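Researcher: Please translate sequence to structure tokens.
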Amino acid sequence: MRVLHAVTLHSPTHAFGGPVRVALNLSKGLRARGHEAALVALGEGFDEPWPIDVEGVPARLYPARRLLPLGFSGMTSPALLARAGRLVRDADVVHVHLARDLVTLPVALAALRAGKPLVLQTHGMVDPSGKLLAKVLDAVAVRRLLRGAGAVLYLTPHEREALDAVVGGAGLTNTVRLVNGVPAQEERPALQGPPRVLYSARLQARKRPVDFVRAAALVRERHPDAEYVVAGPDEGEAGAVRHEVDALRLADRTTVPGALTSAQVLEELRRAHVYVLPSVEEPFPMSVLEAMAVGVPVVVTHSNGLARDIAAAGAGRAVEPGPEGVAAAVLELLDEKANQEASAAARELAAGSYSMDAVLDTLLDVYGRITGA
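Model: Translation complete:
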């Protein structure tokens, strides 16, 4: 089966975050099962010559052009727009990681016009919005695509309700729940040295990296030798993070390395005692799944889509937003016995509920149903 995955942007800094990771994981899993999976996206930040594959997945990357000052929504490529019809022509399934942008919407519309089996996966990026641009795009394209797709994949009941609200009326009848999967990883080695606490996500306001730094100052009172890493591409909060690090006199214990490659993230996870993502309204973060796959206990807030499973399995802690709750959870998990128990539970949860094999089984059933295969 030939599957084309379309996502908004791929860059060396992983600026677009989880949807690209999901698209790559699914593509690699499909290829391991003998299918032909490829990726199409905008590209940004690459040296010449541009890559023709990403982590072994054939890729067509088009130089990003920023037409409007609207973040990812204002980016596109005239060449990609002109070739959208040809891009979908040879695919048996077009799988679009849909956002309200000028990349995934045109590719999905081209697939719909060509009569190609279409799967949409929105990753929580399509929800009710009062913004004028969102209303226009919903009226022109988004509702049509959601209704016309062979399947619309959602992560959580909350996301399903949001999609129904965008469509209106009786809602959607073509939805399928598909969780994010994480490839199996070797367990982190026995930890040595001072405690090491990791944040690895985009530095943006919703992710609350400043809360991480403030929590670190509270943890320091009991673990003055602890080390902290605040990694990720800057989306407006890097200056605030560095200011807080200096103000709280944490500079000698804190590293702010910027964006990391996938290999570097894995290296950091294998050294970490605890992984912290203090963000709010986080649908289904891949970074948390990746941490658990390595056996790193995690701290998330209650609004995280994984919070209930993490708490039930004992794979970490779910807390109220804010540095105090985060710090208390980190301190609990720095206890050696508690850390070992949570580490084992995290590995078990990742390998059981969020294994790539289970996700691919569900996805291939969806592909088979909409193609008649």
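Researcher: Any highlights?
Model: The domain at 2-181+355-371 is CATH 3.40.50.2000 (Rossmann fold).
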